[in-house]
Amino acid sequence: MKKVLPARLKIAFLFLGLILIIGTLGYILIEKWSFLDAIYMTIITLATVGFGETHPLSPAGRIFTIFLILSGLGILMFVIESGISFLLEGEFGNVVRRKKMEKQIQSLRNHYIICASGETGEYVIEEFVKTNQNIVVVTTDKKLEENLSKNNIPVIFDNPAEDEVLEKAGVKSAKGLVSVLEDDKDNLFVVLTARSLNSNLKIVTRSVDKNSVAKFKNAGADEVVLTDLIGGMRIASAMLRPAVVNFLDQMLYQSGEPLRLEEAVVSASSPLKDKSLSESNISEKTGLMVVAIKEKNTGKYIYNPKANYKLCDGDTLIVIGNSEQVKKLRSLL
Fold it and tell me: How far apart are CA 148 and CA 145, in angstroms?
């Protein structure tokens, strides 16, 4: 977040500094005064405090002083008005909020960075927020930045393809990065930059052109999502499999706590390791439904696993449930 002060306040201070320089140089050149006398006279003239002249003024000096008073009053009024609007119109609060947000971002670990623009980016952010993930959003979309700031979601208003911007977002300590910018070229630059800064980072990117998938993979992306392809399949499914689509819509967008397909990995120290599904009592303990298991050793998926399936270290459970239920499962694993 490079911009701390609003542009209007910066311009006001620029004009104020300029009139101070003009006034000081004018008295030095016209009256041959010292720098201290010249700047003192300039300040008391602009401030209209009525302390009187530092030294007697020549006719040219008086004309210059009239010019200084007339121009200086206008500039001072502009500075005061800009300062009042900065304090009263919420801009000061925005600066304080940004500073607080910067500290919050610096303290994050194992978080997700979302480089976003457009509606697709908004949907991605919404899903991460709904599932209670720690995120930092990087965007050049001013409207999106303002909306996220109002909702206290960490956001950086800057170019996500720049090294220092991703470093500010904590890329070296992040768990993953999602790039959903509207142009494939922009997403490619983000992937290249992120991979160069963190070789262990999981990177998922959007691609519009299916011919760009290989380029993204070579640049360091772990997953490439063709949004147009998924949109087309969704439209076809709505026609061919309406009940399935309706079920998924209700699961994802129901009121209250939405359901999600989630995953959790069995750790080496888990009390459920080497136990069967029936012995683990996952459904009773968490309320989750285990719909599949990805075996660590083979990489294959076991759909609708049987009750006697024995859980092994590194197995990934695919479950349906809400975020609180998934938290319970992960505490067991």
Answer: 5
**Predicted TM-score of the model (pTM):** 0.63
The number of beta carbons lying within 10 Å of the beta carbon of residue 138 is 28
- Dump pLDDT digits (tens) for 316-331: 999 998 888 888 898 8
- Residue 190 and residue 146: Cα distance in Å, rounded? 22
Q: How far apart are CA 120 and CA 118, in angstroms?
A: 6
Q: For the chain, list the domains and their CATH numbers.
A: 7-88 (1.10.287.70), 108-232 (3.40.50.720), 259-332 (3.30.70.1450)
**CA distances, 78 to each of 81, 254, 311 (Å):** 5, 52, 71
Alpha-carbon dihedral angle through residues 261, 329, 257, 106, given to the nearest 10 degrees: -90
Report pLDDT digits (tens) over 63-84: 888 888 888 777 878 777 777 7
Distant-in-sequence, close-in-space partners of 134: CB < 8 Å, separation ≥ 6: 108, 110, 111, 112
Specify the pLDDT at position 2.
45
Residue position matching structure tokens 């519009």: 208
